[in-house]
Amino acid sequence: MGKQSINVLAIDEAGRGPVIGSLFIAGVIIDESKAEKFSSDGVRDSKKMSPEKRDFFFSKIKEEAVKVYCVEVTASEIDYKRKKISLNELEAEKMARVIEQALEEGIRFDKLILDVPDPTGKQFVDRIKRYVDLPEGLEIIAEHGADDTYPACSVASVIAKVNRDRSVRRIEEEFGLDLNSGYPHESKVIDYMKRVIREKGEYPDFVRESWATAERIRGEVVQRKIGDY
């Protein structure tokens, strides 16, 4: 009798830090041996891969995985939820939703691997348990940098990152912009945000208004206008 495959549900995010665009939470259920094969073929934490390599493996992962989930959390939802809960809590809520979907669909997974933002894995798993009942005896790995340590989590990071990048490209095409990756330290992003506040007085809904960068730029532009009188 052959060795039974071990299915892993690995979950990672992309787009936590940017001031532009959505956050994506990806969950991938995949045979552990297939995830290891992807690792030997060059899949890493998606931040360490070129866009071309990520795109290449994106379709391969979708073909080989048992199931792929991807949850989009828009800038507007992030702003709204952060009035009540932390970003870490929001991530836990969305990751729990991925787990819940897999359980509702009855798809077997023997191990759960989470890339976590909290100081300890236990702290984050406790958050998740507020939103979903985890199966008894489920092996759970919850670590900082899991996407760089566990092949299945690297696979999930590719799904999240490609979806995130494609969503930013769609914003650029629709509005005729060049936003790089949408991070607050990028000069093109800062220049755009200053321009849109000066010209329109408000940000479009793809800007995370609750970010300190967005609040600071709005304040600077308002003060400058007051100084003009």
Q: Can you put this structure into words, describing what you see?
A:
With 229 residues, the protein is an alpha/beta fold. The chain has 2 domains: 7-172, Nucleotidyltransferase, domain 5; 176-224, Ribonuclease hii. Domain 2 (Arc Repressor Mutant, subunit A, Orthogonal Bundle), CATH 1.10.10.460. Helix content is 51%, strand content 15%. The chain contains 9 helices and 5 strands; from the N terminus they run ββααβααβαβαααα. It has helices at 32-40, 51-64, 75-81, 87-105, 121-128, 146-149, 151-175, 187-200, 212-227, and strands at residues 7-14, 23-31, 67-73, 111-115, 139-143. The protein is globular.
Outline of this structure?
With 229 residues, this protein is α/β, with parallel strands linked by helices. It has helices at residues 32-40, 51-64, 75-81, 87-105, 121-128, 146-149, 151-175, 187-200, 212-227; strands at 7-14, 23-31, 67-73, 111-115, 139-143.
Order of H and E elements = EEHHEHHEHEHHHH
CATH superfamily of the largest domain: Ribonuclease H-like superfamily/Ribonuclease H
Q: What share of residues is helical? A: 40-55%
Q: Strand order, biggest sheet?
A: 3-2-1-4-5
Q: How far apart are the termini?
A: 83 Å
- Find the count of extended strands (DSSP E, 2+ residues): 5
Please report the first level of CATH classification, the CATH class of the largest domain. Alpha Beta
Q: Figure out the total of helices.
A: 9
CATH architecture of the largest domain: 2-Layer Sandwich
Q: Whole-number radius of gyration?
A: 19 Å
Annotated CATH topology of the largest domain: Nucleotidyltransferase, domain 5
Average of the residue pLDDT scores = 94
Choose one word for the global shape: globular
Low-confidence stretches: none
Largest sheet: 5 strands, mixed
